[in-house]
Specification:
One of its GO terms (biological process) is lipid catabolic process. Belongs to the 'GDSL' lipolytic enzyme family. Pfam families: Lipase_GDSL. There is one protein chain. Helices cover 39% and strands 8% of the residues. With 365 residues, the chain is α/β, with parallel strands linked by helices. It has one domain: Rossmann fold (3-Layer(aba) Sandwich), CATH 3.40.50.1110.
Amino acid sequence: MELPSSLKPCFLLLFVSCLLNVSTIISQSLKQEDVLFGGKFQALYVIGDSLVDSGNNNYLPTKVKSNFAPYGSDFEGGTPTGRFSNGKTIADYIAIYYGLPLAPAYMGLSEEQKNNISTGINYASASCGVFPATGKQLGECLSMDVQVNYFKETIDKNLKKRFKTKQELSKHLAKSLFMIAIGINDYVFLYNKTIDPNEFADKLLHEYMTQIQRLQRLGARKFFINNLKPLGCYPNTLARNVPSGSCNEGANLLISIFNTKLRKALAHFKEKLAYTSFLYSDYFKFMLGLRGPSSNQASSNLMDSTSPCCPSVYDGGQYTSCTPDSIACKVPDSHIFFDPFHPTQMANFMYAIGCFQERRVCKVV
């Protein structure tokens, strides 16, 4: 049964208060229990798309940017950074959990800064994907292959200056965490109904795992793998479904095919690659869980799961997004989505709780 609208603000405030208390509990409990996936990482390197982009697209000729208000309204200082949210991303919360600084955007760093950083870098680029052609309709972006190329450049031009011996560098890379969160845009831009779903998933997985192998050969040993989101349950899709607000199960099934293959591939690579470990993040299941008991109906949760915070009046258009002229909602924490394609800081914080505290979202392969 859905709560009366008059009661929702009261319950939401109580709900948010409880979550903030959990944040304190997390920091305290870390001192008392084993850290997930071992911890003690020297750095966090991020490969991904707009879910975890920390500002790389700011420096690229593309239409896909978020370096303007109302983005960043709840980030440190209330400043838009190029993150596609009102605040922190899941990559930011991963860094916080492991006691690392937030990984800065690679494209925004000077050569001197690159030489001095040894706690990680973010290479993620909004609108891009695993395939080189993905997202290029909207301008320049960094595909997974290009991001890995930039990481190799970081090793050759910067890290080799900071770590004087090959052994020191190898130890640093082996004790770093590599987050991978990319692949959904390949479905958005390149998939169509004339393509066999299994064939597309197999080709995408082949390219994806090729880049994982490249990173492993470069020295990466610990991988945080985020699977693909339920594309059929995002506002830009929900508004066109019947009944309105219900998920497109066909789109979700497509993504599930890839996610299942990905999980199996990681288990295979775990056996194949020496001293290499994978933490599998079921982001798909987590985002479905935010909607409530069923993905086939409009959610009855306290948080709005069908409309974005920005724009506050959403017309459901496939290409409608949050712009500098958009008016955002007054309480982003009351929404799962900040814009039609990306979650709010609150949703990202709840992900961190599910992954690191409850340990139901993230599992070691």
